[in-house]
Amino acid sequence: MSSPATLPTSTSQPPSSVTSQSQATLISSLRSSATHLSGSVRQALANRRPWKELIDRSAFSRPDSLSHATTRIRKNFNYFRVNYLTLLAIVLALSLLSHPFSLLTLLSLLAAWLCLYAFRPAGQPLVILGRTFSDRETLGILILSTVIVVFLTSVGSLLISATLVGLGIVCAHGAFRDPEDLFMDEQEALGSGLFSFIGGAASSAAAATGPAAMSRV
């Protein structure tokens, strides 16, 4: 006697369950990335020099020549690099705060990159208004949007002008600040660089978002 036929069972999850899992994955990725990034920033700020030492008026003098000024800038940057990058970030922040539309545009663009690409689960397609977009199409749209926002609006000119102002302040301070009274360990001099601590923060964020983003490459 033949055994009764078994009915096929479906293991697919309901859409609500898939959506909740995607939201949980997105929130977890955001929290992990924010934790790594804040930890790297706190570690970098802990290595900054005292601000009183930065603005010590008795240490300012006019450089003898252009090459002397260049040498001063290099030495001062190696010593005050965290302070200089903090000043540059403050100039950029003040510029964006004085232009709310540009700030809102940049935040919207950043949110689009994070939610639609960086933290979106690799196996979940992007669906907008009933149309499904592949990962390549999503990346192309985001890149095109970034180019339009940065180069075809006032946002790009604002960022460039604020960066130039910040660099001007840094170069002026570095040229007139006499570095003879500054002492720096040899290991610090070898490990210094323009984006030394930013690289650590970026690598930490990449470690948190790597699996989702690299799977689309």
TrEMBL record:
Query: Which BP terms does GO give this entry?
Result: vesicle-mediated transport
Q: Name the membrane topology term.
A: Multi-pass membrane protein
> Which stretches of sequence are listed as region Disordered?
1-22
Q: Pfam families given for it? A: PRA1
InterPro entries, sorted: Prenylated_rab_accept_PRA1
Transmembrane ranges?
79-97, 103-119, 139-169, 189-214
Lineage, top-rank taxon, reads: Eukaryota
> Where does this polypeptide localize?
Endomembrane system; Membrane
Keywords, sorted A to Z: Membrane, Transmembrane, Transmembrane helix, Transport
Q: What is its main location?
A: membrane
One GO cellular component term noted in the UniProt record for this chain? Golgi apparatus
Q: Which family does it belong to?
A: Belongs to the PRA1 family.
Q: What does this protein do?
A: May be involved in both secretory and endocytic intracellular trafficking in the endosomal/prevacuolar compartments.
Q: What's the protein here called?
A: PRA1 family protein
> Which species is listed as the source?
Rhizophora mucronata (Asiatic mangrove)
